[in-house]
Amino acid sequence: MNINISIADDHPIVVEGLRKVLEKQAGLKVIASYLSGKALLEGLQAQQPDVLLLDIRFPDTTGNELARTILPLYPLLKILVITSVDDPFDVRDMMRLGCSGYVQKTIHPHLLVEAIETVHAGGKYLQPSLREGVIGAMLRPRATSVKDILLTVREREVLELISEGLTNSDIGARLHLSHRTIENHRVSLYQKFGVNNAVSLVKLAVQHRLVQ
Questions:
Q1: DSSP 56
Q2: In the structure, what pLDDT confidence band is assigned to residue 74 with cuts at 50, 70 and 90?
Q3: Fewer Cβ in 10 A, N or C end of the chain?
C-alpha cells in the first residue's frame, strides 16, 4: 500500500529535491506540492494525503497557524514538520499542536523515510539530533513573571504594533522589514510570554503596562 504524501514549502528547489528523494522509495507517492499556506489550504479541500511534509515559515502564514487550522479539519492526516529551524521551542510548540513529527531538511534520506513511515503508522518521530534540545527546553523554567522578561528594542516595537491590531504585513511595511522577520519577532514574543496567540500576548502586555 502506498503512503500518499503532500509537500508544503515555499522554496521550489526544496520541493523538487524532496520529491526526487521520495519517489525513489517503494511505497511512497508524492501526490501534491504547495508553495504557500493559501495554496495548501485550498489543495487539501480537494485531496488529502496520508502524510503532509510541512515547513514552518511561509510568506503568507506560519506552520503553527496551518497546523492549528488543518488538524481539526482533517484528523486522519499526519503532519511531519520538515524545516531548517531547529529552535527547541518551535519543535515543542509544533508537537503540542498535534503534529506527529519534526525533522530538519538536512536529515538523511533513509531517516526521512523512517520518519514518514513512523508517523503514518500512528507513532511520533523526533529527529535524534533535536531530542536533547527539546528535553532541555521542556525542563528550562520560563521567566517567573512578565517583569522578568527582557525584550529587545525591536520586539517592543513589534509588540506595540501587534497591540494596535496590525497584521505582520502591516507591521513589516511600518518598520521596513520583511514578513518573515516580523513573524520571527512574533514567535519570539509568544515564547517569552508563554502564550500561543496575539490575544493572550496583548492581554498580558496591557496588564503589565508594556503597551497602552
A1: S
A2: very high
A3: N
